[in-house]
Amino acid sequence: MKRRKILVTGAKGQIGSELVPLLREKYGEESVISSDIKPREEGDAPYELLDVTDGKKLAEVVDKHNIGIVYHMAAILSAAGEKNPQLAWKVNVGGLYNVLEVAREKGLERVFIPSSIAAFGPETPRVNTPQDTVLKPRTIYGVSKVVGERLGEYYFWKYGLDVRGVRYPGIISSKTLPGGGTTDYAVEIFYEALKHRKYTAFLKPETRLPMMYMPDCLKATLMLMEAPLDNLKHHTDFNVAGMSFSVEELAMEIKKRIPDFEITYEPDYRQAIADSWPESVDDSAAREEWGWSPDYDLPSMVDDMLEKLRKKLGV
Predict the structure, then answer these.
(1) Please, are residues 301 and 172 in contact by the beta-carbon 8 Å criterion?
(2) How high is the pLDDT of residue 1?
(3) Does some domain include residue 288?
(4) Which regions in the chain score pLDDT beneath 50?
(5) Which residue range is the domain that position 306 belongs to?
(6) Quick check: is 284 in a domain?
């Protein structure tokens, strides 16, 4: 019997929590099973309590729901990973291995495994970072993402498993809070600007990083997963770009709309992580192989974030 349903791991994370409703809208409520290590919330069904480091339970869930496609979003992010590198390795590498092994054993149709700009390192060209370049990260999160990219490619070439992934930049969302990443400031700043008219950034003002608004993040994810396999020369490591800006540039864009907003800077341990990442990336491979292009730039993202958060916060 052909497996047809979709499983999303890490469904309560920043991306997963918005990916699940989009997939359910597209493919039907009962066709998308969300899963996480957190208890099910009211209205979130079908749902499975699932730790991806438990390969046996993962296999049971796949069989129980006749899963054919997995969006593997469960991960420990960059800043959180530096606080507990052993857990980051267990979840990010061990969990991924379980997903790929179950997918191989059960003959799944397709697997999405997100990578990140954290896969790059200080030796990588920082401006317009090439698609194919040196990968020498200095965080456990970055190391786990390099392993994930290579492991996914290995399963594609060795076993014919259709594994796909993008290197996400920092993701900005109006709906969900980030979960321990180095680019979290780009979401926090909006909440603080609206609620308190001030924000203390944990990165230097000139720190420039690639970013993407959540609607573009979801768009890229679905576009890649729906692209014809024959069009793809790469598989698990596509650079995708939305916009690049510095902390100060984002603050100034917000200040144009909230004139009394003030920002101060107190860089912490996350500054070293940010300094090892690109300022911008070359996403021409994604554009050529599956037609990628973003819808949002910095001004349009700021307008939309402020509009949505004003309604959300009632300010």
Answers:
(1) yes
(2) 46
(3) no
(4) 1
(5) 174-211+243-277+296-313
(6) no
- Look at residue 192 and tell me if it is in a domain: yes
Output phi, psi for 238, to 5 deg.
-70, 125
46 preceded by cis ω (within 30°)?
A: yes
Task: Answer yes or no: do 49 and 182 share one domain.
Answer: no
Q: What is the tens place of the pLDDT at every residue in 41-76? A: 887 889 999 999 999 999 999 999 999 999 999 999
Straight-line distance from the first to the last Cα atom of the chain, in angstroms, rounded to the nearest whole number: 52
Question: What is the CB neighbour count within 10 angstroms for residue 16?
Answer: 21
The reply to whether 204 and 225 lie within a common domain is no
Q: What is the CATH number of the domain that holds 272?
A: 3.90.25.10
Do 17 and 156 belong to one domain? yes
Domains held by the chain: number: 2
Q: Which of 141, 168, 185, 213 is catalytic?
A: 141
141 is catalytic: yes
Residues 220 and 308 placed together within one structural domain of the fold: no
48 and 81: one domain?
yes
Report the CATH number that the domain containing residue 101 is assigned in CATH: 3.40.50.720
14 near 180, Cβ under 8 Å?
no
Same domain, 57 and 94: yes
Q: What pLDDT is attached to residue 176? A: 83
Contacts of 157 by beta carbon, 8 Å cutoff, 6+ apart: none
| 196 shares its domain with 109 | no
